[in-house]
Amino acid sequence: MTEDPGSLPHEIPDHVAQYLARRALADLPASVYETLLSLTPEELAVLEKVGASMQEANCEPHQVAAMIH
Questions:
Q1: How far apart are CA 59 and CA 65, in angstroms?
Q2: How many helices (H) and strands (E) does the chain have?
Q3: What's the DSSP call for residue 44?
Q4: CA 17 from chain center: how many Å?
Q5: What pLDDT is stored for residue 66 in this prediction?
Q6: C-alpha to C-alpha distance for 47 and 40, rounded to whole angstroms
Q7: Residues 6 or more apart in contact with residue 63 via CB below 8 angstroms
């Protein structure tokens, strides 16, 4: 049985998740960070679905940027 490429084999401990979140978000502009913090769980689910679709379609970074705008 193959695992979903987006799934992790183990639960991530909170301290590791916090470290990874800090690293991933460190270079975001403050306005983007604040916008992400304001999203509801439903809005995050839609964002995740769109991102997964774009990744599955092998979209280039410039295509992703054009879709966001």
A1: 10
A2: 4, 0
A3: H
A4: 13
A5: 85
A6: 11
A7: 54
Q: Is the pTM above the cut of 0.70?
A: no
Q: Say if CB 57 and CB 64 are below 8 A apart.
A: no
Closest residue by Cα to residue 64 from 27, 45, 56, 4: 56
| Residue 57 structure tokens | 């379609």
Q: Buried (b) or exposed (e) across 18-38, using 16+ Cβ within 10 A?
A: eeeeeeeeeeeeeeeeeeeee
User: Scanning the structure block, which residue is given the tokens 């940027």?
Assistant: 65
What are the tens digits of pLDDT across the range 18-65?
999 889 888 899 998 899 999 999 999 999 999 899 999 999 988 888
